[in-house]
Amino acid sequence: MYSIGFDIGSSSVKAALVETSSGKSIAVVHEPANEMDIYAPQVSWAEQQPDMWWKHVCVASKRLLSENDIDAKQVKGIGISYQMHGLVVVDKTGTPLRNAIIWCDSRAVSIGEKAFSDLGVVKCMGHLLNSPANFTASKLKWVHDNEPAVYEKIHKYMLPGDYIAYKFSGLMRTTANGLSEGTLWDYKENKAADWLLDYYGLDRSLTPEIVSNFSSQGNVDKAGAKASGLAVGTPIMYRAGDQPNNALSLNVLSPGEVAATAGTSGVVYALTDKTTSQEPERINHFAHVNYTKTTPTVGKLLCINGSGIQYRWMKNNSGNPSYPQMNQLAAQEPIGSNGLLVLPFGNGAERMLHNKNVGAQFVNIDLNTHHSAAMYRAVLEGIAFSFVYGMEIMAKDQTEMKVIRAGNDNLFQSEVFSNTIATLVGQEIELYNTTGAVGAARAVSLNQNDIKAFGAAVSQHDYVSSFTPLANKAQYQEAYQEWKAHLQTILTHKHK
Q1: Do domains 2-245 and 251-428+468-496 have the same CATH topology?
Q2: CATH 3.30.565.10 is right for the domain spanning 251-428+468-496
Q3: If you average pLDDT over residues 185-194, what whole number do you get?
Q4: Long-range contact set of residues 69-72: C-beta below 8 Å, sequence gap at least 24
Q5: CB-based contacts of 476, cutoff 8 Å, min separation 6
Q6: What residues does each domain of the chain span?
Q7: pLDDT tens digits for 141-166?
Q8: Does 3.30.420.40 match the CATH number of domain 2-245?
């Protein structure tokens, strides 16, 4: 028997076929061949067509079955991971009323800021663990205020993964975890935050039925089966946002465990059992995949916009060498890159810097000493230092970090990058070969009682290697302190 996991991103849909008895990944496919389109009708807006996601989900599903000679009846269940914070609005027939407003759209920032000011820190942090900010609730308010004709026709709002589950099953449902992504979950009352909808003047009935993360959330109906190639009755057993699902894929399920990613942007996602925080803006908080009222496991998420995009920029503007070549050259340079410092914040405002845009900078370039290899190392160190800086913010907010796990891809394949973080934070970094789609497929067989068995399967199939803190910590600390001092100077003088 098998399970299939879907990971609906903003660039592509990934689908994985997993053997349920062993947890072994059989195949992974991507659709489409090129990146999906993102529509930007205005600056800082970002939209996608929900049915475009569904189209590629169906193509990916049929490919997995046909290319691996699998009978659809052999698929035990499906799991869904999806881009977080998006908004899909549908009418009574389930037809989208407009394009989805996706995670990177910032049109609702001012709406969320006003809500946070009006409702207050105590109310928002005590109940939502976040500022309403630019999340799903604020995006729905934007539709209410700016597209009243659309709003009047809305039957339900959904997260992107909820919509895909609906297309499979015909059922409009969501999860507490999903609602928490949109600042629509009240942790204190353990129910939907109807009071926030009331404040925004939104109809409470627009919230879909809430189901458990690990449960039969509906079965594939005739229409879903015809479109996807799956069998009628195949259960949907799991759904979660991409960052919580990435953590699950890495066996990050208990307080003190951390999932880190370092692609175009960087994310530190640390688990805690504390439902309090002093960071309403720099850190976001979401109900983790195994959150319950009695065991409130919460994911504390810190995002770094200027991360891998800096390394890609360096690659594109230095003759386009391969990343392994860059990593090898960087490793030959001394710690601290002979005084060369890089601030990697060249991808817009940084939430962890209080939404300031300090830009990317190369500092202390010596034209007689520094060359491309030194610049590669300085960029890797600068990005790693930004991760450490973020982790310090999280530590001050009572975030325990016992172990850090990451996928064996992107920047974590660099010894310079991984050794720098491991040494400065004093924690081992474990690398795993896995993907969000594989994690979603494995989660089909998971419930609250299977956590240990799930972790054993991840370790058995996916563990690659570890980076342990190095003995020469003083050199790393000296370089980091110089970097941090320069950042503080920029923050102080540029943004008085």
Answers
A1: yes
A2: no
A3: 96
A4: 70/2, 70/17, 72/225, 72/229, 72/230, 72/231, 72/234
A5: 335, 420, 423, 424, 470
A6: 2-245, 251-428+468-496
A7: 999 999 999 999 999 999 999 999 99
A8: yes
